[in-house]
Structures are given as structure tokens and as C-alpha cells.
Amino acid sequence: YHISQSCQVRSYGNLQNSDVIDKIRNFGILAHIDAGKTTTTERMLFYSGTIKQMGEVHHGNTVTDFMDQERNRGITITSAAVTFGWNGHRFNLIDTPGHIDFTMEVEQTLQVLDGAVVILDGSAGVEAQTCTVWSQADKHELPRIAFVNKMDRADEDLLEMAVEEKIRLVELLADVDEILAEEVIQRESLSNVGPAELKAAIRRATLSRLCVPVLCGSSYHNVGVQPLMDAVGLYLPSPLDRPKDSLVELFKGSFCARAFKIRHDEHKGAVTFMRIFSGNLQKGQKVFNVRQQKAEQTGQMMVAYADEFQEVQEMSSGNIVSVTGLKDTFAGDLVTGNLSSANSAKEKLMKLKGIDA
Ligand code: GDP
């Protein structure tokens, strides 16, 4: 792996057209504190060419730590979601709250993800919060990749101390290799399995939540972060891979989105981050809040890149956008394109187990 040339130019990492829905990956990073979520996020932005300089976490100058600068410039660098390109994919990395106490916030965020990367600290093994985020991902039936980070640490004492934890780690992830091996052996008995077939087999098993691909590496190195991004593209779901009973099925092409984060911006006022599940959203469109059965007027519509919001005129299903102008829409609320679909949606949603208006 080499640092891509695109780091030199402002390219947002060769971003795919937002209409190519099967190239979209809406994913979050879940981790115990200190496992390396910030470092990994920042390095993903760097290696994808989205930011030109790497910060060090302990210097307090990573993209996600620039809160003061963010306020001064009136934009959101560290956003509720950041969009960038990798290997022909459009990645929407959605920020999951670090503090597990904000359970409602975590739940609202998990509802808009299609998949997740769970980061473990290789020198610490399975930690308390690893288990919490793991079971949250289970609850939301999220296909996931495990990234065992900090493997550059050659601290033997530390590793020895963590042996017990590592055994738990292996147990947690044990079903992975077995199922993968089974798939491959089955295929091998038919013909020699090539890398493409193997990847397809892993993808199917990952999407059906039968396996969790595990990558070991270090977010300090491109050989950790770049293969991790490849794996996100290869194994995590696109919005088309969502289960049948999802909002996509329910709304059948008419506009429906879920708000998952509201940020207050000095210049723009409330900025509402939404995941579009179905249909398109136009700039300045009127939307209807399903819970409140109320119309709301959107203003600007934007996509959040690492260091700026870029205005867009229209956004299609599967994408993440932020809009201004919504006053009564809260995180977790669903919005639709017209009153009648808001009305029928409420009824349908009440019948549908697991989907809450
Ligand atoms: P977060 O709390 O999960 O966001 O973790 P951070 O990204 O802030 O990382 C916590 C600490 O671990 C920081 O001091 C990082 O520099 C360090 N760290 C992160 N990734 C690695 C890695 O791959 N190897 C080593 N040795 N340290 C790492």
C-alpha cells in the first residue's frame, strides 16, 4: 500500500457519484475508549486524501479534536458524519458517541448505520465497553468488521498481562474463522477457490451476520488503515443490502429520512443530519415530521466533508445529508415528503416490530 497521490490535491479521495447506491457505505466505528477510534478515523481521512496532514492525538490537533477552530470557522470539521471516497466507494463515516452513558444517542445513531467497525486494543483485549458496543451491534443486527488495533506494540509484559483477555477475545470472535473455513472448504471441493470467490463468500457470510472478518493492524500505519478501508468496501453492506422489513420497503420510493443528530451552528442555526432511507430530497423541500405530524421547511442542504460543508441541490436514497431550517425535528425522528405518507407511515410503523416512529 502506498499513500495515494490524491493526498496532494483536494479530491475527497476520488469520491463516487452519490447516485451509485451500491457503492455507499454508511458505517460507524464502535470501540472502548482509547482503543484508537480517533486515530483510525483521522488516518482514514488522510489515506483517502481527504485531509493533507496527519495530526497526533496527543497533540490535540486531529481533525476530530479541532473544536475551537470549528467554532471560529462556523463549520463542522468534526461532524456527526463525514463523507469521503475510497476505492470507488462513497464512505459516510457516522460518528457514534464515545460515552456509553448517552444511550439514547447511541441508539439513534445505530439506527442509521448499515454496518460497523469494532476497534479493539490489541494490547488490552476485550474491555468492558467492547462487550457493550458488541451487544448493541447485535441488537441492531449490524454486520461488522473487527479491527484489532495497536499490533505495533511489542510490549511483551503488556501482552502477557493481557493473555487472559486475549482468550476472551478469541472466544468472542471464534465463530468467524470456523465459518469462513467451512465456506471455503465447501467451495474448494467443487473447484479451486480464487481470491474473488473467497471475498464473495466472506461478504455473504458477513452480511448475513454469520461471520465477522477480523483484521489485525495498527492505525499508526498505512498497512493497518488502508486494508481496513478496503474491508469496509468489500464486506460491509451497501444501503441495498438492508433487511427487507426496513424503511426502504415501507416507503417504496417516496421520500423518507431519519434525523440522527442536531448540531447548533452559530451561523446556520440548527443543522439536522439525516439518513435518507427512500426517495430523494431536494434543496428547500417541505418535509413532514411523522412523530409530530407536522410540516417543516428545509433551507440549505449540505454534505459534510472533513473540513467543509458543501451545498447540494438534491440527494438520493442511501445518502447522509445535513439540512438547515428544521425547528421541531429531533434526533431519532422520521421525516417524509408529504402529509399522507407521514400519516400512513405512522400506522404502518406501529404495526412493524422494531421500527419506531
Ligand atoms: P479513542 O479514545 O478510541 O478515540 O483512542 P485514540 O485514537 O485517542 O487513541 C488512544 C491512544 O492510543 C492515543 O495515545 C493514540 O496515540 C494511541 N494509539 C492509537 N492507535 C494506536 C496504534 O495503532 N498503535 C499504538 N501504539 N498506539 C495507538
Automatic annotation (TrEMBL):
Keywords: GTP-binding, Mitochondrion, Nucleotide-binding, Protein biosynthesis. It comes from the Eukaryota. This is Tr-type G domain-containing protein. Residues 22-240 form the Tr-type G domain. GO terms for biological process: mitochondrial translation; ribosome disassembly. The keyword Mitochondrion applies. The chain holds residues 43 to 399 of 692 of the full protein. GO terms for cellular component: mitochondrion. GO terms for molecular function: GTP binding; GTPase activity.
